[in-house]
Amino acid sequence: MGKPLLEGAKVTAEVVDEARDDKIIVFKYKPKVRYRKKQGHRQWYSKLAIKEISLGHGTRKGGRRSGS
After folding, report:
1. Domains of the chain: which residue ranges?
2. Contact at 8 Å (CB) between 37 and 25?
3. At residue 62, does pLDDT exceed 90?
4. Which are the contacts of 36, defined by CB distance < 8 A and separation ≥ 6?
5. pTM above 0.70, yes or no
6. How far apart (Å, rounded) are the C-alpha atoms in residues 60 and 54?
7. What are the backbone dihedrals phi and psi of residue 24, each rounded to the nearest 5 degrees, phi first?
């Protein structure tokens, strides 16, 4: 995931929340044959907090940077 892919890189994360996204409506329709189908869908997702990214030769702590 991501480009360029770094060999030996390691990401440490913490699961903050597991929830469901907003509902989307799936509506299927075929003209002339009276076919209509309405269905809702809510996708599960996990909210992560990145704690540390290590590249093998040094580490970088997560969080907000001061400055810009």
Report:
1. 18-56
2. no
3. no
4. 27, 28, 29
5. no
6. 6
7. -115, 150
The 10s digit of each residue's pLDDT in 8-56 is 888 899 999 999 999 999 999 999 999 999 999 999 999 999 999 888 7
Handedness of CA 57, 62, 67, 68 (dihedral sign): positive
- Which residues have CB under 8 Å from 13's CB, separation 6+? 48, 49, 50, 51
d(CA 3, CA 8): 14
In 3D space, the residue among 41, 44, 39 whose CA is nearest the CA of residue 20 turns out to be: 44
- Cis bond leading into 4, ω under 30°? yes
Q: Parallel, antiparallel, or unpaired: how do β-strands 10-20 and 44-54 relate? A: antiparallel
